[in-house]
Recover the amino acids of this structure.
C-alpha cells in the first residue's frame, strides 16, 4: 500500500513564511508515542543529496530486523530553496515527498538523515515530513543543530541526553565503539527511548543505521 501524503502547505515560500509555518506545525508533532520493536516489520531510510542546484532524494525500504532491502524509490528536482540552517525541510521536503509517492509499500517507521525535534523550533525534517505522512519518523543526524550534552562513553550503545532550554530533545548515541556519535531525536509519533533502540538495532558495521546508509547511497546515484 503506498504512502498517504497530506497536503499541509506549499513549499515555495519565503524564509520568513517558512519559520511561521514551522512554529505553527511544531504544535502538531506527537512525541512520547510507543514504537515497540514487535510492531515494526518494514523500516524506511530517507536521504537527499544536492549538487549543482539539483536535489536527489532516495527512500529505501528494508525488512526489520533482517535489514535486507526490498524497495528503493528516487526522485530528482531542481533545488527549490536556499541552504538556511534550521530550514532544511523546505530545501528537501518536496523531493522527499516525490520519492515517497513512488513507493509501493508503507514502512512502519522512517529514519531520516536529519533532525526530528532536536531543532530550535522543535520541527526538523523528520518531524516536518512526519506530519505530511502521519507515520512514525525518527531523526538520526550526523551533527548537532542545537542543545547541549556530555560526551557519551566510548563503547557502542553508550548515550547521553541532548538538552535544550531545559527540555530533553534527543540523545547522543555511540553506534560504533570509538567512533563519533549520532544525534537521535523523535520525528513524529515515536518515543525517544524507542527511537534510540531502533537506530541502534539498525546499525551494523558502520556509524549510520543501515536504512539511512542505503538511502544515502541511493540518493548519490540519483536516478528518478
Amino acid at each position: 500500500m503506498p504512502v498517504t501524503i497530506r497536503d499541509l502547505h506549499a513549499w515555495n515560500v519565503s524564509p520568513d513564511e517558512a519559520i511561521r509555518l514551522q512554529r505553527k506545525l511544531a504544535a502538531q508533532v506527537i512525541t512520547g508515542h510507543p514504537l515497540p520493536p514487535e510492531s515494526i516489520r518494514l523500516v524506511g531510510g530517507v536521504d537527499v543529496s544536492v549538487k549543482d542546484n539539483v536535489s536527489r532524494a532516495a527512500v529505501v525500504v528494508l525488512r526489520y530486523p533482517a535489514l535486507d532491502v526490498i524497495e528503493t524509490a528516487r526522485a530528482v528536482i531542481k533545488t527549490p530553496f536556499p541552504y538556511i540552517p534550521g530550514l532544511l525541510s523546505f530545501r528537501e521536503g518536496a523531493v522527499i515527498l516525490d520519492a515517497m509517492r513512488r513507493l509501493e509499500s508503507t514502512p512502519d517507521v522512517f529514519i531520516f538523515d536529519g533532525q526530528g525535534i532536536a531543532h530550535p523550533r522543535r520541527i526538523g525534517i523528520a518531524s516536518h515530513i512526519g506530519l505530511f505522512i502521519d507515520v512514525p519518523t525518527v531523526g538520526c543526524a550526523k551533527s548537532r543543530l542545537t542543545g547541549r550534552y556530555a560526551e557519551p562513553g566510548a563503547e557502542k550503545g553508550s548515550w547521553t541526553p541532548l538538552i535544550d532550554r531545559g527540555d530533553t530533545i534527543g540523545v547522543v548515541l555511540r553506534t560504533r565503539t570509538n567512533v563519533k556519535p549520532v544525534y537521535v531525536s523523535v520525528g513524529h509519533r515515536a518515543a525517544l527511548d524507542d527511537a534510540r533502540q531502533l537506530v541502534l538495532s539498525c546499525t551494523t558495521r558502520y556509524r549510520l543505521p543501515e536504512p539511512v546508509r542505503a538511502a544515502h547511497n541511493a540518493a548519490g546515484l540519483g536516478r528518478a
Summary: DSSP finds five helices and eight strands in the chain. Strands lie at 42-51, 54-63, 69-78, 109-112, 137-141, 159-164, 167-173, 182-188. The CA atoms of residues 68 and 171 lie 26 Å apart. The mean pLDDT is 96.
